[in-house]
Design goal:
The complex is a heterodimer of chains A (about 290) and B (about 200). Chain A is mostly helical. Chain A has helices spanning about 1-20, 25-50, 65-75, 110-115, 115-130, 135-160, 175-215, 215-225, 270-285, and strands at about 55, 80-85, 95, 105-110. In chain A, strands 1-2-4-3 form a 4-stranded mixed β-sheet, sandwiched between helices. In chain A, strand 3 and strand 4 form a beta hairpin. In chain A, helix 1 (about 1-20) runs antiparallel to helix 7, helix 2 (about 25-50) crosses helix 6 (about 135-160) and helix 7 (about 175-215) crosses helix 8 (about 215-225). With about 200 residues, chain B is of the alpha+beta class. Chain B has 6 helices and 7 strands. In chain B, strands 1, 2, 3, 4, 5, 6 and 7 form a 7-stranded antiparallel β-sheet that branches. The longest helix of chain B is centred in the middle third of the chain and has 19 residues, at about 95-110. The chains are: A mainly alpha (about 290), B alpha+beta (about 200). The interface of A and B includes residues 231, 246, 274 and 277 of A.
Chain lengths: ~290, ~200
């Protein structure tokens, strides 16, 4: 993970030097970037609340949920976060906030209904781990750099189309093209690194959450339950199966997996569950 | 897309089926299962086929005569759903597995693989240990489907179709895969066998 973070840092440092060297007026766009950053960093919780329809709930409205979150927050030695509920059947949960003081935990009514207390506790433990690990801040900074490059990419594109700003035409077209191409490459590499970072943070939160609760299996159970994988196990008896299966040309083993990994923000479910089960084994047998 | 990605599908039955030997040994070392000695091969019978028509004597000569002679005992049983079972028993688990393979292979050679449904191994997970019984805890079956060339766990909770402990099966599948068993990746293919005659 630290390797990925270092790579991100190096990528953007080299990129900044490159831009300066190529004579790009980066000073010009700094105020705009600053504004974007401030909005992203300080308003994100409110923006997320608005976009997801989450409503903050008081202790009177959701006493059990409050109590559960309070117990967990105490274990993390963090202040009590705000609690919100989203009224939807889709099982999900998230946490937000740039630091533990300004954090918020939201769960959907769907997840409350579907999980038992032990599993819900594990899910909230995972979300609080994101807060405790300051993941929102790390990702805000990382995402900001990506936003910056994409902004620059658009600017350069229009700049090339309409030929420079305010009559500064000392750059030749070829140099500009070069800067544009490098920006695109940096944008894509940056994007991939951020996605990798997100996945590491996800594993990290799984791990921290499990250590706090001492029950890694609970989150694994919850993940399996939410994803509905267990429900895929059929009612059908094997003897009712016709021989049609013999005609299947592509075996199920060849389909899926692998290619999506690089671009997905959450690690594949089976990998997370596998790691949690391993942790469970280690805790149970005291192996290290 | 199943929850178990990863390993490649083996080409032949033996390389897939034999993974059960290692997995069983590993779980025994961990003290999680009691020694296992029973298994079965289930197939759709047809008396028109000369080999299947005299399966008992055929299997006797295959299992007990010549170089590969084993001590595995077997019985032929018909279930109420029109299928025939060869139920095998052997105190040595790897001998049991190779006998199961031999029986399946013989049926395959003489009747083709289409009517060969599955090989089923019975395994008891320790947990609640009752005194004076060498079998205790949760009874599980590991079903090997010949058409899929992979295993999956089956934990029935009753005799009726659909009665099974899905969460335990999902967990067990994950554990067994960790222990090297070739696991069927698509959960929708984990079809049960209710009323196993052993």
């Amino acid at each position: 993970m630290y390797f990925t973070m270092a790579m991100l840092g190096i990528l953007y440092a080299v990129f900044a030097l490159f831009l300066l060297g190529a004579g790009t007026p980066i000073i010009f766009i700094l105020p705009i970037i600053g504004a974007i950053f401030i909005v992203q960093y300080f308003m994100s919780d409110r923006l997320i609340l608005m976009s997801t329809g989450a409503k903050t709930v008081s202790e009177e409205q959701e006493p059990a949920l409050h109590k559960m979150i309070k117990t967990l927050a105490d274990r993390y030695e963090m202040p009590m976060p705000k609690v919100a509920v989203i009224d939807t059947a889709i099982p999900n949960a998230f946490a937000t906030g740039r630091n533990p003081k300004n954090s918020l935990v939201a769960v959907t009514t769907g997840i409350q209904q579907r999980l038992n207390e032990r599993e819900l506790q594990a899910v909230i433990g995972h979300e609080l781990a994101h807060v405790a690990n300051r993941d929102m801040r790390v990702l805000a900074v990382a995402n900001f750099l990506v936003t910056l490059t994409s902004f620059l990419m658009t600017m350069l594109f229009w700049n090339m189309l309409f030929g420079g700003m305010g009559g500064r035409r000392n750059n030749n077209g070829g140099g500009m093209m070069m800067v544009y191409l490098v920006t695109i490459i940096v944008y894509f590499i940056g994007q991939l690194l951020v996605l990798a970072l997100t996945r590491y943070r996800e594993y990290g939160a799984d791990h921290t959450g499990a250590e706090i609760s001492g029950d890694p299996g609970a989150l694994a159970d919850a993940l399996e339950k939410i994803s509905g994988t267990v429900a895929n196990i059929p009612d059908k008896d094997l003897r009712k199966l016709q021989t049609a299966n013999a005609f299947l040309i592509i075996p199920a083993a060849l389909k899926g997996q692998g290619s999506m990994n690089l671009f997905s923000t959450h690690p594949p479910l089976q990998e997370r569950v596998k790691r949690l089960r391993e942790l469970e084994q280690r805790m149970r047998y005291g192996l290290r | 897309m199943g929850i178990f990605g990863g390993s490649k599908t083996p080409k032949d039955d033996w390389s897939a089926m034999s993974t059960v030997i290692k997995a069983e040994a590993k779980l025994q070392t961990l003290g999680e299962i009691t020694p296992s000695r029973r298994a079965g091969v289930i197939y759709r019978n047809s008396d028109d086929n000369a080999f299947l028509g005299s399966i008992e004597s055929e299997l006797k000569s295959i299992l007990y005569v010549g170089d590969g002679a084993t001590k595995t005992s077997f019985e032929v049983e018909d279930d109420d759903r029109g299928m025939r079972w060869i139920v095998l028993e052997d105190g040595n688990f790897s001998d049991l597995v190779s006998s199961v393979y031999t029986v399946g292979n013989a049926i395959n050679m003489n009747d083709g693989a289409d009517n060969l449904l599955a090989a089923v191994f019975e395994l008891y997970f320790t947990g609640t240990v009752e005194d004076n019984t060498y079998r205790s805890g949760t009874r599980t079956y590991w079903i090997y489907r010949y058409d899929r060339k992979a295993f999956y766990p089956f934990v029935p909770t009753g005799e009726n179709e659909g009665e099974r402990d899905r969460p335990t099966e999902a967990r067990l599948g994950m554990d067994l895969r960790e222990h090297g068993l070739t696991i069927e990746k698509s959960l929708t293919e984990w079809m049960g066998l209710w009323g196993i005659p052993f």
